[in-house]
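Translate structure to sequence.
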């Protein structure tokens, strides 16, 4: 009996993996199309934001807050932030965007979440390498990359987004007003996460307030991977991991207890 149960569980896992793989291919085709223009735009969009920030602040300050390159500073902040923002934005409508597929019994709502998570994390990673690779190669000084800090920041940011997305896929359907309120609250995060400044350089008590935002620690971790001289005073990986794990657990609880809502029954 136990062996039969294990075989059944393994079969279900393999089935879900196949569904997720098929959904990733479908999402890729739907989002980027079959022409290369979609993939090019995925790179041009962050590049335009980074260039805009660099031009604006080069006109205000003579030196970036860290290092000697404005483009490098804003690229590490913006891309670090995208591991949260891009993932959250794309995943928040995962179930709703694949509603027609949920009529098939072998497609579960959670499969749509994981498919979009895999695709967006991979997309943001490719964009990071495509943009930061040439930028670091053109710097006048050699750079030592700390991959552990970069991976920690990227994973923590994406897991924060994943936990929030699990909850939002339910709450957006149950409470339309909550969706509007979430957009309002989420919009200032770009300004409050240390994308274009160093949180540890802020005066008290603003520094302590900004450091309550876990995305701030995500960006600090990401930047530490490119700046060996960055002390990142106030950076707390334990707090970052705790927030990511708590949101993921809470989101999963809401998601798994709302099957009828997710399937529109």
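Result:
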């Amino acid at each position: 009996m136990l062996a039969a149960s294990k075989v059944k569980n393994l079969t279900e896992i393999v089935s879900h993996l196949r569904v997720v793989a098929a959904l990733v291919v479908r999402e890729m085709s739907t989002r980027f199309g079959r022409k290369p223009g979609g993939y090019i735009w995925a790179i041009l969009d962050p590049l335009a934001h980074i260039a805009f920030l660099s031009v604006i602040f080069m006109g205000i300050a003579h030196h970036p807050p860290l290092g000697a390159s404005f483009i490098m500073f804003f690229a590490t902040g913006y891309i670090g932030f995208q591991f949260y923002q891009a993932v959250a934005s794309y995943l928040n409508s995962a179930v709703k965007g694949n509603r027609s597929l949920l009529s098939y019994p072998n497609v579960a709502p959670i499969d749509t979440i994981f498919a979009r998570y895999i695709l967006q994390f991979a997309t943001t990673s490719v964009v990071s390498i495509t943009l930061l690779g040439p930028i670091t190669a053109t710097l006048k000084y050699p750079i030592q990359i700390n991959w552990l800090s970069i991976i920690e920041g990227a994973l923590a940011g994406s897991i924060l987004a994943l936990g929030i997305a699990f909850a939002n896929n339910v709450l957006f359907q149950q409470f339309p007003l909550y969706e509007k309120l979430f957009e309002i609250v989420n919009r200032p995060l770009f300004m409050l996460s240390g994308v274009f400044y160093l949180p540890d350089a802020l005066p008290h008590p603003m520094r302590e307030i900004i450091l309550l935002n876990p995305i701030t620690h995500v960006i600090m971790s990401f930047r530490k991977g490119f700046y060996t001289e960055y002390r990142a005073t106030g950076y707390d990986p334990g707090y970052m991991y705790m927030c990511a794990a708590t949101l993921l657990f809470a989101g999963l609880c809401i998601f798994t207890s709302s099957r009828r809502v997710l399937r529109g029954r």
